[in-house]
Amino acid sequence: MVKFLVSACLAGVPCRYDGAAKTSPEIVALVESGRAVPFCAEVASGLSTPRRPAEIVDGDGEAVLDGRARVVDDRGSDVTAQFIAGAELAFVAAREHGVEEAVLTPRSPSCGCGEIYDGSFGGVRRAGNGVTAALLLRNGITVRSPD
């Protein structure tokens, strides 16, 4: 019955870095109907809510997975290991539920698909995927932002 893995914050869970949710009525309806499972890779990896904002430096999620880029918070602390661990846990959850598509939060260093922030913490966007989105895509799961 489950068809989608969705960012938990889109399902109304207050798990974003700032302690808020980014509720999408479409996503809430999918979860309530049993067609989607909510998941937050950052919380699953042990990061707290709230937490320092983080961005990918020197690349995108693909580069992070390949060891060519890092995820750092706005104070310069390296949180790459947590982001990779969270992505791996998201993939495990997707596989356990037979998910073929994920609907993920735009521009997130974990979930962004197609666009993320550039690592300057200046609000500048760049093309690329977050770490979780990149890992899901590598494993054949379609990834998109909510409509």
Describe the model.
The protein is an alpha/beta fold. It has one domain. Helices cover 29% and strands 19% of the residues. It has five helices and eight strands. The chain has a four-stranded parallel β-sheet with strand order 2-1-5-8, with helices on both faces. The chain has a two-stranded antiparallel sheet with strand order 3-4. The longest helix is centred in the middle third of the chain and has 17 residues, at 80-96. The radius of gyration is 14 Å and the shape is globular.
Distinctive features:
147 residues, alpha/beta, four-stranded parallel β-sheet, two-stranded antiparallel sheet, 5 helices, 8 strands, 19% strand
Short recap of the structure:
With 147 residues, this protein is an alpha/beta fold. It is 29% helix and 19% strand.
- From the N-terminal CA to the C-terminal CA, the straight-line distance is 21 Å
Measured on Cα atoms, how large is the radius of gyration? 14 Å
Largest sheet: 4 strands, parallel
Kindly state the number of beta strands: 8
Can you tell me the number of structural domains?
1
User: Segments where pLDDT lies below 50 for 5+ residues?
Assistant: none
Percentage of residues in DSSP E strands: 15-25%
How many H/I helical runs?
A: 5
Average pLDDT, rounded to a whole number, is 97
Q: What is the 3D shape?
A: globular
Biggest β-sheet: strands ordered side by side in the sheet: 2-1-5-8
Percent range of helical residues: 25-40%
What structural category characterises the helix and strand content? alpha/beta
Secondary-structure element pattern, one letter each: EHEHEHEHEEEHE
